[in-house]
Design brief:
37% of the residues lie in helices and 22% in strands. It is an alpha+beta fold. The chain has a single domain, classed as Trna Endonuclease, Chain: A, domain 1 (3-Layer(aba) Sandwich), CATH 3.40.1350. Helix 2 crosses helix 3.
Length: 145
Amino acid sequence: MIKRGIYLFKNPPSRYSANLNANERESMSTLLYKEISYEIQGACFTAWNNFRNAFKESIIENALVLEMEKRGLWIERQKRIDIYYKEKKVGAYVPDIVIEDLILFELKRKPYPAKQDIQQFWYYMKSTEYKVGYLVNFGDKKKNL
C-alpha cells in the first residue's frame, strides 16, 4: 500500500528499520516517480546555485519553472484542486506548481520552514489524490528540500 506523504518512499521510514526484512528495506528505498524526482531536485539545486536566497519567492519560482521545463517536465502553475468534506466541495487548494500532474510543489522563501507550513502542506497532501509532494524552502543559509 502506498501511503501519502511529503517523503518519497513507498512506505515511511521506521524508527525500527533495523528489524525490517530485505523486502521491506527494498520497498523503503524505492522512490515514487524516481526520474521526475531526480529532475525536480536537479532543478532546485541549479536554481539554488544561481540565486541562493537573494531574491523573493516569485523570482525563484519563475526560475524553477524555466529550469523544470528545460528538463522536459510538464508544469502547471496555480492549478486549482478541489477539496471535499463528506463528499461536498468546501474549497480549493492552489499549489505553487503541479509537476506532470503527479507531484505537488510548494516553494517558500523564509529563514526556515515553519511548523505550520509543514503541517499545512501535509493536510493538503492528505486532502488530494497526490502521493508525492515537495515543500522546498530557499532559506537564509541553505535550501531545505
